[in-house]
Amino acid sequence: MRHRVAIVGAGPVGVTAALELARHGIASVVLDDKATVNDGSRAICLSRHSLEILQQLGVEAPFVAKGLGWTRGRTYFRDREIFRFEMPHSEQERFLPMINLQQQYIEKFLIDKAAESEPVELRWQSAVTGVSQDASGVSLEVSTPRATIASPATTCWPPTAPAAWRARHWASPCTARPTRAAT
User: Fold this and answer.
1) Residues with Cβ < 8 Å from 96, sequence gap 6 or more?
2) In a 10 Å sphere around its CB, with 0-12 CB exposed, 13-18 middle and 19+ buried, how is residue 60 labelled?
3) Inter-residue contact 178 to 140 (CB < 8 Å)
4) Which of 14, 22, 35, 136 could hold 181 in an S-S bridge, CB 3.0 to 4.6 Å?
5) Which has the closest alpha carbon to 34: 127, 121, 112, 106?
6) Whole-structure pTM over 0.85, yes or no?
7) Residue 16, exposed/middle/buried by CB under 10 A (0-12, 13-18, 19+)?
8) Looking at the predicted structure, is the pLDDT value of residue 126 above 60?
9) Nearest to 110 by CA among 13, 36, 15
10) Both ends of the chain: CA-CA distance in Å?
11) Cα–Cα distance, 161 to 157 (Å, whole number)
12) What is the pLDDT of residues 63-113, one digit of tens each?
């Protein structure tokens, strides 16, 4: 099966990329080797700008409802405060400067939104085990609990890939590229 865009990783970056593509009418398949969202947290803070992006995707409400918003922070060493800061905020801002929210909730809210979006196809327990490229595009080898399959996909660079990585791995920006989203 051919897909215009394949995103490897159903973490916050991968699913956000899929939702943004869907917002522009571009279908994608999101592959992840896990069976569900992370059960732990590797990230906890979301900035105001991140919430503005989530608002454009129409998914900000559960983040704001569940998250703990804040404008100031303090750092202690034993019983002594060693650092204090306050982030600018005004009543004209839509969101507080930061909210704390564990990654499993971040992923769940994004995945729930993606599940409602027809252009986004989520495939769990689908580990990318190989990538090959020829003149017709890129093929991904995907292992699932049932089988290993090769699937052609035409995709672009990872949204987080540095220019040096792109230059080493691929000749041009958006012709038959595997995409790996960091989680």
Assistant:
1) 48, 69, 70, 71, 89
2) buried
3) yes
4) 14
5) 127
6) no
7) buried
8) yes
9) 15
10) 25
11) 7
12) 999 999 999 999 999 999 999 999 999 999 999 999 999 999 999 999 999
Contacts of 159 (CB under 8 A, 6+ apart): 13, 17, 179, 181
| SS3 (DSSP) at 32 | coil
Q: Tell me the range of 39-43, 130-134, 178-182 where mean pLDDT is highest.
A: 130-134
Helix 48-56 vs helix 12-23: crossing angle, to nearest 10: 40
Query: Looking at the predicted structure, is the pLDDT value of residue 18 above 70?
Result: yes
Distances (CA, A) of 154 to 134, 140, 162: 11, 10, 20
Residue type, 137: G
CA nearest neighbour of 106 among 27, 162, 30, 53: 53
**Measured between alpha carbons, how far is 1 from 5 in angstroms, rounded to an integer?**
12
Domain boundaries, the chain: 60-101
